[in-house]
Each structure stands twice: as structure tokens, then as C-alpha cells.
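User: hey, got a sec? need DUF7344 domain-containing protein folded
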Amino acid sequence: MSTESTSESLSAVDRSVDTLFDALSDDRRRYVLTYLRESENAVRLDALAEAVVAWERGRTVETRAPTPENVAISLHHRHLPKLERTGLTERTADGVSLTERGASAAESFSAASAERPDGGNSA
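Assistant: Yep! Here you go:
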């Protein structure tokens, strides 16, 4: 194997890892993956938005809590497309579900959070 081929392969791996870390860098996207992991079937966008709102209201005290409509828009236009491009979720007529890669990623960061001394809570 030539050095050039090895460099190209490593560069592709780096881009893939960077893309995955970028997708997992957002709390809302990580919560979506966790929620989908705990669901037995595909989840409709409105149900997913309501779950995200309940989770976010439980985490912070804000004067302006997100509405399910605003969260659904955010999920539809920003978060779900990024998760799909990364191969972590897929959308069908039945709703949103995890791919095998998404289930593996959700399992990995859930295990890592459980091992943190603060129980996985953000500072």
C-alpha cells in the first residue's frame, strides 16, 4: 500500500469522525438519539418534538420555554437532516427511527455519560 493511499484513507476517516462528532455535539441531537433508542418503533415528528420540549423544560429554567411547534421546525430543518446525513437516523412515512449506526452511537455516549462522576450532567 502506498503512502498516498494511506494518507487519503486517513483523511477520509478524519472527515467521517469529524462529521460524527459534529452531529453529536448538540444536546438536542443527542437527546433525539437517546429517545429513539428507547422507542420500539419509528417516532412521529410531533411526538419527538413534544419529548424534546419536556426534556428541555426539565433541564433548565428559562423565561421562554420552547414550544413543540418551534422544536418541530428546528428538528425538521436543522437537526434531523444532520443526523440523516451522518447515517444515524432515517425518516420514513412511519416517522423517525435510528439506523444501526445511530443505535451504536447512542449506546456509546449513553455508557460514557453514565460513567461520568456528575452522572452525565452538563456543567
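Quick note: The chain is about 65% helix and 5% strand. Let me know if you need anything else on DUF7344 domain-containing protein.
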